[in-house]
Amino acid sequence: MSFEDIPVDIGVVYEGERVRGKDMFVELGGPKMEKKFEVALAREMNEIEDEKVTIIGPDLKDMEPGSYSPFGIFIEVAGKEIEPDLEGVIERRVHEYVNFVEGMMHLNQRYDIWIRLSKKSFEKGFNSLEYLGKVLIRLFKSEMNIIEKIQVTFITDPEEIDSRYDDILSRYNERDARARGLSDAEVDTFYGCSLCQSFAPTHVCTITPQRYANCGAISWFDGRAAARVDPKGPLYAIPKGETIDEYRGEFSGVNQAYTEKSLGKVNSVALYSAFERPHTSCGCFEAIAFVIPEVDGLGVVHRDFKGDTVNGLPFSSMADSTAGGRQIPGFHGLSIEYMRSPKFLQVDGGWDRIVWLPESIKERVYEFMPEEIRDNIPTETEVMSIDDLKTYLKQKDHPVVQRWVELEDETDITPTEGDYVPVPGEMTAMIGGVGGGIEIIFKNAKIYAEKVIIRRMGKGEKKK
Ligand code: SF4
């Protein structure tokens, strides 16, 4: 495959490259644009003009340096083995391939895409989306040989984006709804995805019917279709193996896949918990569940939420504490679709443990929330401080309030002389918490303690 006619380098070496605001020539999509999307569609062979690139709206060379543009990417593909189940997987490869372009950064997925082109690459001559189209077409055809015909359309015209937007959102919804009829117990195979390991080397997504991929772009059906056509690709089958704990979502096959794919860094995962050996988080998650220790509950915030959340921190600060392919108890990357699942954080209390979320997420998942809790979980329109949150939860008699009572009764743990806390294998301690901090790993450690003190982190409150 040759890229000699492309004015910048193309290669896996550029994956993970960041383009900072001061270095960018233009930003396409991203948080400043309300509507943006990328979508792949399966077509009939006769519906596609092979290798055609279309640009609707201003091209890169027509844009002002340092400007922002709305953006849409349409990838249409055809081939004997192409089926609608593959759309999500083909679409997700756009993230990988755009990041192969020197000086281009692609973040997120679907209706959340955020792309930057660097000034350097623009100055080298990468001044048209035509080049990006050629790169995508060549990479798709060489990496996915089931694609026999492909055409790519880029849209920067705001009216054109507007006119297609609702239809595209409903396509995403249809895909998501399809996986809702199936339960994790009914299948003997889950699917793994390692596409994000270039950003987070120990991260593995385990995609089950009831735990959608963190990025919200790949369902169990998508995983199955991708593993079938390309079993050695980044999406692969994970036989469930022995069910170690059905309630926690712990399976020997999943543990084994983690051990292999994370090179031994992650060995055990409880799929339905944000606290106890949680599923790892790369950086592409749609939302974060974050612990609010003052109320012993979890808040949820999504990528598009502007400004600070109820704990005074914005999404970006908590994303730093969550990402990187680690298992951080209490900071958990997830998709919005997972919030519609009956398995949603069930080990931690599910919806009974959620104490705050943005209005726009609430609207999207409202009908999937248990009726009795819907009006007891505040959003930014009702509560924006921890003190107000406590008052609100008490007034509403939110189920989490019961946990405060239980905690009062169980925090005195005093080992007798000679007792010790054995640590089997490895223990990780986080120091610093939100916004950074350090991680200390004790291997094969035994810790002796005369007394264990558990302290609440809220001001003025402590128990011994
Ligand atoms: S978030 Fe997970 S499923 Fe989505 S691309 Fe990354 S590894 Fe794959």
Notes on the protein architecture:
It is a single chain. This protein has 464 residues and is of the alpha+beta class. Among the domains are: 12-172, 2-Layer Sandwich (Bifunctional carbon monoxide dehydrogenase/acetyl-coa synthase(codh/acs), Chain M, domain 3); 286-322 and 349-409, Bifunctional carbon monoxide dehydrogenase/acetyl-coa synthase(codh/acs), Chain M, domain 5; 411-464, no CATH class. The chain is built from 11 helices and 21 strands. The strands form 7 sheets. A 4-stranded mixed sheet has the order 4-1-7-6. Strands 2-5-8-3 form a 4-stranded mixed sheet, with helices on both faces. Strands 16-14-15-17 form a 4-stranded mixed sheet. The longest helix has 21 residues, at 158-178. The chain is globular and about 70 Å long. The N and C termini lie far apart (66 Å). The model is unreliable at 415-438 and 457-464 (pLDDT under 50). The protein binds iron/sulfur cluster. Residues 92, 193, 195-196, 205, 213-215, 217-218, 282, 284 line the site of iron/sulfur cluster (SF4).
Looking at CATH, the homologous superfamily of the domain at 12-172 is Bifunctional carbon monoxide dehydrogenase/acetyl-coa synthase(codh/acs), Chain M, domain 3
Q: Can you list the ligands bound to this structure?
A: iron/sulfur cluster
Share of residues in helices: 10-25%
- CATH architecture assignment of the domain at 12-172: 2-Layer Sandwich
For the record, the CATH class of the domain at 12-172 is Alpha Beta
Mean pLDDT: 89
Structural class based on helices, strands and sheet pairing: alpha+beta
C-alpha geometry? globular
Work out the number of β strands. Answer: 21
CATH topology of the domain at 12-172: Bifunctional carbon monoxide dehydrogenase/acetyl-coa synthase(codh/acs), Chain M, domain 3
